[in-house]
Amino acid sequence: MSDDPQHDVIDFLASPATHGGAPVSRIDTHAAAVFLAGPRVLKIKRAVRFPFLDFSTLEKRKAACEAELTVNRPYAPAIYKRVVPVTREADGALAIGGHGAPVEWAVEMARFDEKATLDHLAAQGRIDGSLAEALGRVVAEAHAKAPPVADFHFADALADIVAQNDAELRERPDLFAADAVAALTQAAQAALARLRPLLDARERDGLVRRCHGDLHLGNIVLIDGAPVLFDAIEFDTRIATSDVLYDLAFLLMDLIERDLTAAAATVFNRYLVATARDNDLDALAALPLFLSTRAAIRAKVTAARAVHARDRAAAEDSARAYFALAGRLIAPPAPRLVAVGGLSGTGKSVLARALSAHLPPLPGAVVLRSDIERKRLCGAAETERLPPDAYTAAVTARVYASLAEKARRVLAAGHSAIVDAVFSRADERSAVAANAAGVPFQGLFLTADLATRVARVGTRAGDASDADAAVARQQEHYDLGTLDWTEVDASGTPQETLVRALAALRSR
Questions:
Q1: In this structure, which of 200, 211, 304, 363 has its CB flanked by the most CB atoms within 10 Å?
Q2: Is-contact 66 83, C-beta < 8 A?
Q3: Cα(324)–Cα(306) distance, rounded to whole angstroms?
Q4: What distance, in Å, lies between the first and last C-alpha atoms of the chain?
Q5: In the 8-state DSSP scheme, what is residue 147?
């Protein structure tokens, strides 16, 4: 006989007979047992109690199942169905949703392809630019729906996490050198002390919310071509409540750790565009701390799991890698400002997006695009076509002024920026360069012949730019004045333009 009080229920749910003869796959974690059979998934909570969760009684497990349903249905309504009892019938047999007394509770879910989670897709090199864009959008949508939590004192909660990381990392001196742990903790505490007024202000602005809490690639699945978040933290509101950028930082860190820096930069920039919160630009000052803390958490958790891992050496190497990443992220390199100019159809926006991942600090430079800024100033959707009066000299001046102000805020937060605009006038180029204010600056001006530019603008779809062939031909007559920026031949492929642009940036 097993001494597991749930063994009868587990054996019952693991039996194909329970599911009409369908084969059953079982997944066990420290806090749950999951049974996958046919199109259905049943997940029960284990009768355990840890410092961070308590599932020790049937009532608590039922409450946890109900909380899981409540928390996750907004993210994945097609996956999370209901909470169902496992009952003991009059004849002593167990049943799912029977008429007898409940002996266990389960979350019933619709089954999805377990190999379609993004950790699997990442391992196969399948997180491309379009999927990264969709990821940025879906996280922004989730945060928009997340309820704000007042008087949570997130800065204090983060201080507790830093202290916990320090204590638990010190428990494994075989993996994490004591002096390195001390240096990481000191850097994190210094950053938190500096950032506390900023974090408190963001909390007052409603940007501390009841978030997903466990937003890594393994908790996102591709369903019908769209990323869906699932398995949000339900057992501890305090763990799941945070600044929205701290929630995003888990996903960004996970991509960075897998060397998917281009995807991380795309998720990051799409999120900023989708949320359209200017105060997030100031909050970029907190991103190194957020990313580093997430990496440190993964380091200690991976180290704890390594004890029972099949390949302990590999798990320990992974823990060391996370710890080293935490150290790199907390001490980011200095920012720089890059401006990408050129007439319509030269590929400015394509290049700016590609350059982002190449400009530190991680996860990449913030791309500030004139087409998107113009739409915002005019109150239009990103792909909505604007009337001619949105392109007057006065409106264009407002666009450039807004880009300059946002670039200033990004740089002041210690982050790099790329400003993407035509920059056909010398005064526009001078103004953006003046914004650098001691930060390294370089301007790139893309060039391509008229036929190439006309062909490119004619193939655009679903893009923020309103430029068409007529605009491209009109711009052919612009007097650009003296160009003191580096000219980059953009007549070839996007990759060829990127190579030339990177070479120009390295030359400086």
A1: 363
A2: yes
A3: 17
A4: 73
A5: P
b/e 414-434 (16+ beta carbons within 10 angstroms → b): bbbbbbbbbbbbeebbebbee
- Domain spanning 118-329: which superfamily? Aminoglycoside phosphotransferase (APH), C-terminal lobe (3.90.1200.10)
Q: What is the pLDDT of residues 384-407, one digit of tens each?
A: 999 999 999 999 999 999 999 999
* Separation of alpha carbons 439 and 110, rounded Å: 52
pTM of the model: 0.94
pLDDT at 159: 98
* Sequential DSSP letters for 470-488: HHHHHHTT-------SEEE
Q: Does domain 337-507 have CATH number 1.10.8.420?
A: no
For residue 101, give the 3-state DSSP assignment. Answer: strand
In the chain, CATH 3.40.50.300 covers 337-507
232-289: per-residue pLDDT in tens? 998 888 999 999 999 999 999 999 999 999 999 999 999 999 999 999 999 999 999 9
Give the span between the Cα atoms of 81 and 503, in whole angstroms. Answer: 53
What are the pLDDT digits (tens) for 190-235? 999 999 999 999 999 999 999 999 999 999 999 999 999 999 998 8
